[in-house]
Specification:
Blueprint lengths: L1 H9 L1 E6 L11 E6 L16 H13 L3 E6 L10 H4 L2 H13 L2 E4 L11 H9 L3 E3 L3 E3 L4 H4 L6 E5 L2 E9 L12 E3 L3 H14 L4 E7 L2 H8 L8 E6 L6 E3 L7 E4 L6 E9 L5 E9 L8 H17 L6 E4 L4 E2 L2 H4 L5 H11 L8 E5 L8 E2 L2 E3 H7 L6 E7 H8 L14 E4 L2 E5 L8 E8 L2 E4 L5 E7 H4 L20 H14 L15 E4 L9
Parallel strand pairs: 2-3, 3-4, 4-5, 8-10, 10-11, 11-13, 18-26, 23-27
Antiparallel strand pairs: 1-15, 2-14, 6-9, 7-8, 12-13, 14-15, 16-20, 17-19, 18-22, 21-26, 23-24, 24-25
Helix pairs in contact: 4-9, 11-15
Length: 529
């Protein structure tokens, strides 16, 4: 266990002090923050992430005399292979286990509202022993106990101090789910300040935020520290790779971790004799150097057994990967992925004749792992955490280029709307304004490539979710279009089985000489050089 202590302090990235503390007067408080977690177990063949390693980390911090609290930035009930069976009850079970080790406080993410009716949310909240927080949203499920379960302007005592928490989640206008059983206020800044004022009225010693918002929104809210100096930090979710905005006298620290607890944040808070707080935050990579917790592994084994009871064929081999196929979220949400290439190539043949173009949002692909060697039924099931029917439509080259710009908007890494593509290649320059970042969009021509013809007509296959405007894609609706058809999960399964029947392996390396996606660095190169 001593190795873990050394690891934690070797991974210190940033030290940010609210005040210089010559003498610590109270026991230390440590927050462990995670977000966007979809599995009871670890990922990358058990080598990365997982709640079991979170528990080990928490226990080690407790053994050092720290008062530990666990924070979660939302997205946990859905989507996953298991949530299609148990609607997140397996994650609730895992969270209850962690809450018994150290109190756990969570904010709902947009995926907590994936189901159109409230029944599954009602069951999840009723089974929860951890605290659900919510200041800009209210449950309207019709169940009085559940509708009153959300903690607002939440406070708790720790390290002989009172800590106040505000919590916010995405409104439908920003990518959240619009549901009849959910009331949501999209004035994030206004709600945050109002809640902070309520916490100040309670005379709290420290204020923190737990959110499920876009990073740029969190950073804006962090600026409230200029007027409210007790605001120390904001931790959040929605993005799936670590992000950090340093604090200052006028801005709180902002942090987000990696999906499936591959990287979490440990945040130490110590108070001096005058009651001033010192904040020290650090990333902790949960990898093989951190052991699984033996007690938690019993819970993980229980749910694994239940899954195999439902799907006894889950570990059966259905094909063979020609090379390791990269389905990690750090890849599918940021760059060309060879697992995604295989998947999007199947989309183009979904409606008979091969379509000219196809793309999907990287957030559709939920595996967060490699497919290496044997391809299992489980690899397909975990890749598609929710239904994804396809549509065949058409666009002019100019329209298609405008539509695709939505995939490269905004700032920061790991956006779920980042497109994986087939039938064309695209070069972008992120130094240009959002909406004008595509430098070159090329289609095959006579053994080479040429710019897409602005007035040309192209057949296009997209997920029904994107056709309906999901993830900010505005696809023309005035063209003949198929109804939703051809479930992508089964299309990919058929592609793997077809290759197996032909004695072929699946996939190929990303070709550095012929990439589907190319990003200019500071606009100084030429596209596809």
């Amino acid at each position: 266990m001593k190795r873990i202590s050394l690891l934690l302090y070797a991974l210190v990235l940033v030290f940010s002090a609210c005040a210089t503390a010559p003498q610590i007067a109270t026991p230390g408080l440590t927050f462990v923050h995670l977000n966007d977690t979809y599995r009871v177990g670890a990922v990358e063949d058990g080598n990365a992430g997982g709640f079991s390693r979170v528990v080990t980390l928490v226990r080690e911090l407790q053994s050092e005399g720290r008062d530990v609290r666990i924070l979660h930035g939302g997205d946990f009930l859905y989507p996953s292979l298991e949530s299609q069976l148990w609607n997140g009850q397996q994650i609730v079970d895992a969270f209850n286990f962690m809450d018994a080790v150290a109190p756990m406080y969570v904010v709902a993410g947009n995926h907590e509202f994936d189901r159109r009716g409230p029944e599954q949310l009602i069951a999840a909240v009723k089974a929860s022993q951890f605290d659900w927080l919510g200041d800009n949203y209210v449950f309207r499920t019709g169940d009085a106990g559940v509708d009153g379960a959300l903690e607002t302007a939440f406070t708790f005592r720790a390290a002989d101090k009172t800590v106040g928490v505000f919590s916010l989640t995405l409104n439908a206008k920003d990518g959240g789910n619009k549901r009849d059983y959910l009331e949501n206020n999209g004035d994030y800044l206004g709600v945050a300040e109002k809640t902070i004022q309520a916490l100040e009225a309670k005379n709290v010693d420290l204020i923190i935020g737990v959110t499920h918002l876009h990073m740029w929104t969190d950073v804006e809210i962090a600026g409230l520290k200029a007027k409210h100096p007790k605001l120390a930090f904001i931790v959040g979710g929605h993005e799936h790779e670590p992000e950090h905005s340093p604090g200052s006298d006028t801005s709180a620290i902002v942090m987000k971790g990696a999906s499936n607890a591959r990287v979490v944040w440990a945040i130490d808070v110590d108070f001096d004799s005058a009651g001033q707080a010192t904040i020290r935050e650090r990333q902790v990579k949960l990898d093989r150097s951190i052991a699984f917790d033996a007690e938690y592994e019993i819970l993980a084994g229980k749910w694994r057994g239940r899954l195999l009871d439902k799907y006894p064929f889950l570990e059966a081999r259905i094909g063979t990967a020609a090379v390791p196929l990269d389905g990690r979220e750090v890849t599918v949400r940021n760059e060309e992925s060879n697992w995604a290439n295989f998947i999007v190539d199947q989309m183009r043949i979904a409606f008979g004749e091969t379509a000219d173009l196809a793309f999907l949002n990287g957030g559709t692909l939920r595996l967060d792992d490699y497919v290496d060697g044997d391809i299992l039924f489980e690899d397909i099931g975990r890749t598609f955490g929710f239904t994804s029917f396809l549509r065949l439509t058409s666009m002019t080259g100019a329209e298609f280029r405008e539509v695709l710009e939505a995939g490269y908007r905004g700032e920061g890494p790991s956006k779920g709307y980042f497109p994986q593509v087939s039938g064309f290649r695209v070069c972008i320059d992120r130094s240009r304004p959002s909406g004008d970042r595509i430098v070159s969009l090329q289609v095959p021509a006579s053994g080479g490539w040429q710019e897409i013809a602005a007035a040309g007509e192209y057949s296009v296959v997209v997920p029904d979710y994107l056709f309906g405007g999901g993830d900010g894609y505005e696809i023309p609706k005035d063209r003949p279009t198929t109804p939703p058809a051809s479930e992508l999960k089964y299309l990919v399964l058929d592609g793997v089985l077809r290759a197996q029947a032909q004695g072929k392996k699946v996939g190929a390396p990303v070709d550095p000489e012929n990439p589907r996606f190319y990003e200019l660095l500071e606009g100084k190169q030429r596209c596809f050089d």
